Amino acid sequence: MNASHTSGTSRASHAFHVESHDSLEAVREVWAGLARDSRAPLFHHPPYLDAYAAAPLHHIARTSYLLARDRDGAARAALPLFHQPEMDPLGVLRHQLPARPGTGAEGGAGAGSGLLSHVWHCYDTRILARGPLTAPLLDALLDAAHRIARDGGAQWYGLVNVEAPGALATALDRAAPDRGMCRVRVDERFTADLRRHPTADAFVASLRPRQRQRLRRYGRRAAEAGLATRVVDPREADLDGLLELVRATMAKFGATSFFPEGLFQRFVTALGDRARIIEQRLDGRLIGGAACLVDEERLHFWISGVDYGAAPTFSPNYLLFLEGIHEALRRGVPVFEGGRRNGPFKELFGLRGRPLLAYVAPVG
């Protein structure tokens, strides 16, 4: 059955009921409206959710799309939930959570399953709320998530990659103690406000002198070497070559399986015009590339990889990241999302770190 209905318990049950859908089709227009009205990043819009359903980059046993309605039947909030048999693919939870009762295991999530929002390929989890995210509304959604996790055999449930400080983190801080939720820091993402920089030259001019000089020097040397850079639709890009570069880069973090062969290409292609691929070529050979995701307010420098030994006189990585910022400026979006990790490098470009938290509880 495509949709089932459940009501939140206790105080939430009087104000909201929550629908759980196995497919986005029945609620597509309502969901898209909530994502638009809440100014959510691309990860929460139908194009991304559809692409992930068609080509899941991480094993998903089941997806539930929660839609909360008030007593008048008006849609008030939405939240995607993903039952992940391995809930910690990046290894950021396992040493921070308590052991599950009766397991005797060190750490709580090393081999555990979880019903989580969002997938780990999203670094900005939101609840799509129309109006304030009140305690009864959050309770209704969390009650539904707990029930689905229990019925589906998940060992944990909750939200990961929640920005702090922020409205959602504040609401979860209030709800967490009564639910036995653990609050742990899992990562950091980096962003830049581009509204003060009308052009690429203005952006570079805003950086510290040493970084300005470095970028200009690399730019001159790249031009002398004949580096060719282009930004293209995924269907025109060398996605196989890009994945090879990405996986070599991810090997530094022990996460080469985070972007599986075949599924990565299908996922990026399924995003259509919501994805742009940056390619760097030297003597016709791909030496650097990035997959960028775009929404109305942001360009996400989502994943990248370079051959660090291909250009001894300049850094393809620096110029690749700068090209991502240039593409954001060309599109006129106010925010450049630089992704997670590698903070010292991204701070050279003026990006600001934003802590990411997980709120997860064992399923009793």
Automatic annotation (TrEMBL):
| Gene3D superfamilies to which the protein is assigned, alphabetical | 3.40.630.30
Record key words, sorted: Acyltransferase, Transferase
Q: Per UniProt, what is one Pfam family of this protein?
A: Acetyltransf_6
Which superkingdom? Bacteria
Q: What class of enzyme is it?
A: transferase
MF annotations from Gene Ontology = acyltransferase activity
Could you say which EC number(s) this protein's record lists? Answer: 2.3.1.-
Domain spans labelled BioF2-like acetyltransferase: 210-346
Protein name in the entry: GNAT family N-acetyltransferase
The record lists the organism as: Streptomyces daliensis
